[in-house]
Amino acid sequence: MPQTSEIRLPAGTALTQVQAALGKMIQDHEILIFMKGSAMLPQCGFSAQVVEIFKRLDKDFTTCNVLENELVRDGIKTFSNWPTLPQIFYKQKFLGGCDIVTAMYQNGELEALLQA
Amino acid sequence: MNLAEIKAKIIAQLPGAQVEVEDLNGHGDHFSAQVAAPQFNGKSLVEQHQMVYAALGEAMRTGIHALALETKPL
């Protein structure tokens, strides 16, 4: 089983610092999933599906639960110009949401990308 | 939000697009859409989806809770 870990926006982050803080989180974690709930307990079917994909690929990943913090929930949508969750970042690149990552998994692109 | 409104918003921003929209739960808030548009040529999947989201604008934050999206160039 892959290792999963959870991160949070640093306590006390002000609204004006959110975008920079999100950028730092994305920079510091190779595979980072912004999702509803946690890897152990996803609280949305789309988030659960993405977690399941990375588990099947046996890749360690980090999650950030947007339901814990409204600043993250809104801020990440601005950061990536993407209105929905989950959102998946790999090596600082925004891969997309549930539909795109699922399609990439099904056609083998995701596995190839993660092994490159 | 109804199916015709969603379709119209997408086509208004992406003229010539072929759009199929489905209401997934009958409540008018969870949808799936298949969009094929000439404007998608040369764009990444992320960019294609961003173009659809931009066409839907504020509706993505208000009327639409979930949108399963499939896009391809036409």
Question: Summary?
Answer:
The complex is a heterodimer of chains A (about 120) and B (about 70). Chain A is α/β, with parallel strands linked by helices and about 120 residues long. Chain A has helices spanning about 20-30, 45-55, 70-80, 100-105, 110-115, and strands at about 5, 30-35, 60-65, 85-90, 95.
Cα-atom radius of gyration of chain A: 13 Å
Rg calculated over all Cα atoms of chain B = 11 Å
Low-confidence stretches of chain B: none
Count the DSSP helices of chain A: 5
Major sheet of chain A:
5 strands, mixed
Report the CATH superfamily of chain B.
BolA-like
Number of helices of chain B: 2
The name of the CATH topology of chain B is GMP Synthetase, Chain A, domain 3
Give the strand tally of chain B.
Answer: 3
Helix content range of the residues of chain B, please? 25-40%
Question: What labels would you give this structure?
Answer:
heterodimer; A: 116 residues; Glutaredoxin; 5-stranded mixed β-sheet; 43% helix; B: 74 residues; GMP Synthetase, Chain A, domain 3; 3-stranded mixed β-sheet; 31% helix; 30% strand
